[in-house]
Structure formats: structure tokens, C-alpha cells
Amino acid sequence: MFDSPDEIIDLCNPIDNDIPVWPSFPPIDLKHESLAARDGFTMEKVTMRTHTATHIDSPRHFIPEGRTLDEFPISKFMGEGIVLDMTDVGNSAAIDVDDIDRYGDDIQSGDVVMLNTGWDQYYGTTDEWMFEFPHLSGEASEYLADRGAKAIGIDTPSVGGWYGEVPGHGPSTDVHPADSHLPLLENDVIPIEELRNLDAVRGDAATRRAYFFYPPLNFQDTSGSSVRAFAFL
């Protein structure tokens, strides 16, 4: 018999027509195609990018010949890990090696490392959420890959900062997204982006261990997928 977890914490943002998406993406289109009252059954159609809402990246996201999600075993998308308190990093800050290394003794090889910046408090079509979020420096990504991390999660839109241009906002960082992503993806470290509730996992401690799940749909030949992420305590 398996023991049930003491607590299960949902780590996902919702998916509906009103959610924020990456500023250069079109909005989600979720609509009813059939209604039970009219057609005898209800069914919806969803149109959105694979890197939308709480999602993971595969190496193919930045590496032309990189592995796609279906090339990993399902075990790649779950594992024991740790939440780290990053709530003291600032607006648009690049999380650096020193920010993570203060917890270096607590990080184990093979861990799913979750970075709790607290940025989910700004979730929505806000400047903070869409453009001014903390993200990884290239050196921090290299450090985490060298430590043997299995996956890196963050409660912001991306492990890489906003580097683009839209009419309402220019770049918020000088760290190119490839600098944040490539050290992870080149080492098959899976980024998990747009998480929430990592503070509920961490509680009052600076770090806390848990078992994390972030499985994608069984898409073939894709660079990413929305996921149903949660933590067992």
C-alpha cells in the first residue's frame, strides 16, 4: 500500500480566455463548440501556444536539434526537490549564483529546484507580471545545471526575463533569454514556468523539500506543453 500525502498543493495558473500570455503571443481562444442543452453533449475548442499558462520547455525550445518532450520518459516530469526562498530579489532582477548558493548545502543532485520569488502575487495583465519579473542569469543557470538539477521551476512567466519590444514596454533586462535557457536545456534540465503557490509549499522556512509533479500532455514533437503541476508534502 502507498501512503497518501499529508497535503497536495496546486502549483498551476488557470487557463481561460482572460489569462495573461507572453506579450508577443495572441490571446487564448477557448470556446464552446457544442452545448449539451442544444446538441446533446458539451465540447470545447482551445487554441493557444504550447508555452502558455503553467508550462514546461523542452530543449527544442531553443536548440534546433534538441530533444522534444516525447523523447523523455515520464519520470523526467516528476521528482523530489526543494523550494528556495527568493522573495528578496527585486523587480526585474537577474537571480545570480550568490542568490542560490546561500542554499547550496540543501540542494541535492537530481533535485527539482523551485525558485519562490513571490511574483505570483502580481499575476494578471500587470507591468510587474508581464515585463518586470525576476529571472535567472546565465551564470545561475549554469550553476544549477552543474549541481545536477533535474528541473528548475519559477513563479514568474519565464526563467528568462523580458528582452523584447512591444508598444507599451521595452526590454526589462540585458540578459538574453538564451543565456538563461541554454545552460539548462543543453543539459536536459527542464524549465517549469508560470508556477504559483510555492510559498504554500515552503511555509515559514527558507527552504522545504517536497515531491513535485509537472507532466505534460503526450504531445509528439513539441518544444513545450502546459502542465498540471502540484506538490506532495
TrEMBL record:
It holds the Pfam family Cyclase. SUPFAM superfamilies: Putative cyclase. One of its GO terms (molecular function) is arylformamidase activity. Gene3D superfamilies: Putative cyclase. GO terms for biological process: L-tryptophan catabolic process to kynurenine. It comes from the Archaea. This is Cyclase.
